Amino acid sequence: MNKLLSLILLVLFVGCKKDHETKEVALNLKQYTIEQFMDNEAVSGGSFSPDNSKLLFSSNRSGIYNMYTVPATGGEFTPITASDSSSVFAISYFPNDERMLYRADGNGDEIYHIYMRDTDGTITELTPDKGARALFYGWAHDGKSFAYGSNKRDKRFMDVYEMDISNMSSKLIYQNDKGYNINAISSDKSLFALSKTINTNDSDIFIFNRTDKSLKKINENQSSNAVQDFTLDNETLYYTTDDGSEFSYVMKYNIATGEKEKVMEKSWDINGIYFTHNEKYMVSFINEDAKNTIEIKEMATGKNLELPDFKNGSVTSVGFSRDETMMRMYVGGSNSPSNLFSYNLETKVLIQLTDVLNKDIDANHLVTAKVIRYKSFDGVEIPAIYYLPHQASANHKVPALVLVHGGPGGQSRQNFSSLTQYLVNHGYAVLAVNNRGSSGYGKTFFQMDDLNHGEKDLQDCIEGKNWLAAQPEIDANKIGIMGGSYGGYMTMAALTYTPEEFAVGVNIFGVTNWIRTLKSIPPWWESFKDALYKELGNPHTADSVRLRRISPLFHTDKVTKPLIVLQGAKDPRVLQVESDEIVEGVRKNGVPVEYILFEDEGHGFVKKENQIEAYSSILKFLDTYLKKENKPIDGEMPSKEIEAETP
């Protein structure tokens, strides 16, 4: 009895202490500017130099992504590139010397080219073919060449080339006439693992033998399959599949005998696995309730490595040195941007290499995401990620936003977002919904919105609004909807087809005319075209009737609530005309519309200057039309258009 009483008192004490800490944060909460939030640094990648003394990575600390190096033992960053226009993303050090590979496109047009930086600082464009995109596929195991894809022969398909790094000459090693996706190449370069996406939950994988030109299909049943890695001896292919299961698991396939064996299964999707250079470790990525979980198995013992305990943070990605003695890790969470660490696997020495959170921001003032679930109109359970401002309470109700991810088929995840934290810091609750059709929750849920976009998935978002409205801390009359790409489409669908449900809309490069978008997809998406048509509809058939019906552009007369639209002029996926025309159509209703166009951005805003302009404009819009009375100021209908000049 005494033990039970002690336990109850302990629980009450911990609960009271937590409530007290929450109130303390709310009382002392500081609101930060968008400049302060965007002064958080974003870092990505991490390739070890041949001697493991340095890491090569990308950072946006200059306002635009450039390449930097940092000592693996910690220290100052050394800038390697100084682009002031197109972002530069590091690929890798060369295996045996300190030359570097990187990629860049034309301000977001996604036509990537591969470049080499020599040890003397000289830059050479290795894939100079105008209008052709190039993708790095990986180093040969002997380190003497690398494979890359290019669509210079046929803009629809990526052929595979091998570049000899002794003289930087390249040769065609696989001509891709059927539109396969290139997923893996065996260490002896004789085998190619290919895939073909058929539908939302139907993708086939194949092995192409360069020696006898044979093509062998691996999966037997309709299922979602993804190539992962060949073994070093070229005898086995690892792949993930959901054949006979809701979630993806790992299989290995004996190439000579055709025998298959299940080697790993979890209660969530295993998104991928790979082997380190000499197969000392196998790395697995598990999508656990919208959060990345990583397992690293030592192949000799079959045991998982014990990773350092980061308390409130989690390991989001890892990479290894070529000799498998060093590992780099990114560690972060919904309330913390990811930092880069180096970890010596032999000495167990862990070193934090970056400190990306702006020193002006108190980490206690950021909000930790909470996973919630609610029932939709037909009883389907919808998962969502909830951010509640510290200052919110039953006595201080706050406005809220339903946030819809990109896709279709994307997923809102428990990752750090400067925009989300900025809005929450300024008193907006955010519910990032994973409506039906989102990935990560089983194949049945994933397929639920096929040929149904703008209908049941929209109802899921409305039920998310209803869930928010029922929360005691939320002002039920002040709930808006926001999203980018597919999420932008959902924003416009909500304002068009359910015009009284949401108080405002934030459309970030959203599709508004499905017929045009599906007809104008980039040529290099040819291998996905049929799958897109099966999920969304074929604009060249009778499906066009339905596509027109669900395209907000043709129904702008129904929009009655304030709208802000943001668009990149270089966007190859959602063309600028999509936003131009929706703005023109809605303005005819006398509805407040703001339009922000960035001339030097594509599908997503990567330059800090533009992010600051975009996100501060969103907050000003919300403060005017959502937080305050939702009616025109002084009886006027303001309209604002901003064009951000290319730096």
From TrEMBL:
Pfam families: Peptidase_S9, Peptidase_S9_N. Keywords: Hydrolase, Protease, Serine protease. The keyword Zinc does not apply. One of its GO terms (molecular function) is hydrolase activity. The keyword Repressor does not apply. Residues 90-348 form the Peptidase S9A N-terminal domain. InterPro entries: 6-blade_b-propeller_TolB-like (IPR011042), AB_hydrolase_fold (IPR029058), Pept_S9A_N (IPR023302), Peptidase_S9_cat (IPR001375), Peptidase_S9A (IPR002470). Residues 415-628 form the Peptidase S9 prolyl oligopeptidase catalytic domain. Signal peptide: none annotated. It comes from the Bacteria. This is Alpha/beta fold hydrolase. It comes from Gelatiniphilus marinus.
